[in-house]
Design brief:
Layout lengths: L1 H10 L2 H67 L4 E6 L17 E5 L12 E11 L2 H4 L4 E9 L4 E9 L6 H10 L1 H5 L6 E13 L6 E9 L7 E8 L4
Antiparallel strand pairs: 1-8, 2-7, 3-6, 3-8, 4-5, 4-7
Length: 242
């Protein structure tokens, strides 16, 4: 009797049949498909995450190697490579004529390169030049050629080098000076430009520093009584042509 009643209820209950034979299998299949899709998605996410982590690690290592190489190069450069240039101001002195006024002796100066035992790199070639900043005055234009001499001495004041070179202001005709004055007149009036010329006199074109006698002092002399200048500068530049 109970079995017959259950059969009749199932027969006249179509929703139970639909749930049992259609919905439940569909739900099971959908759940399996969803789980499979999620597993594949998680695998792909894990793979992408691993790739990103590997790329980031490689990029970090490459950046670390590059910065380490730069640091080692800079350390080596400043530890072993000589300085490119040494510049010192030259304070010229001269004796004044009591009867005529003006200089009675050639302008000369002593430049101390360093208080230590050495400044320049041993075996390195250097160019030693004197830079004279001269006004374009009538007296300098009529000065003509003059000599600039230099002496290099070590810590014990022994002479290690002596040379003299000629120098001359660049010639400018009256026409060129007039055109330059008229064209640059506003700059001269506003103080943005001065009528001066900078002369570079190379005393020693290639001086090699000796190991046992490093240079510590330089003596400069301008052999002219009539020269006028604003400033004089000594510049020692390393020559890396070899």
């Amino acid at each position: 009797m109970g079995l017959a009643l259950e059969f009749l209820l199932n027969l006249f209950d179509p929703f139970h049949i639909i749930r049992r034979h259609f919905w439940n299998p569909f739900k099971t299949i959908a759940a399996n498909v969803f789980d499979h899709f999620m597993n594949k998605t998680q695998d792909k996410v894990s793979t992408i995450r691993d790739v990103i982590l590997r790329i980031g690690f490689v990029a970090f290592m490459v950046a670390l190697i590059i910065w380490s190489a730069i640091f080692m190069y800079v350390t080596f450069y400043y530890a072993y490579m000589p300085a490119m240039s040494h510049t010192r101001p030259v304070h010229m002195q001269f004796k004044t004529c009591l009867d005529q006024g003006g200089p009675c002796s050639f302008p000369h100066a002593h430049v101390s390169l360093t208080k230590k035992q050495q400044l320049l790199m041993m075996g390195q070639a250097y160019r030693v030049q004197v830079i004279i900043d001269m006004p374009e005055s009538i007296q300098n234009q009529e000065l003509g050629m003059f000599m600039v001499c230099g002496e290099l001495r070590d810590q014990e004041s022994y002479l290690r080098g002596h040379a003299c070179r000629t120098a001359l202001m660049k010639y400018k005709s009256h026409l060129i000076r007039t055109i330059s004055t008229w064209s640059l007149g506003p700059l001269y009036i506003l103080g943005l430009k001065e009528e001066h010329e900078r002369i570079y006199v190379e005393i020693f074109p290639r001086y090699l520093e000796e190991r046992n006698h490093p240079i510590t002092d330089v003596y400069i002399e301008i052999q002219s009584h009539k020269i006028q200048f604003y400033s004089v500068t000594l510049q020692i530049t390393a020559d890396f042509t070899d």
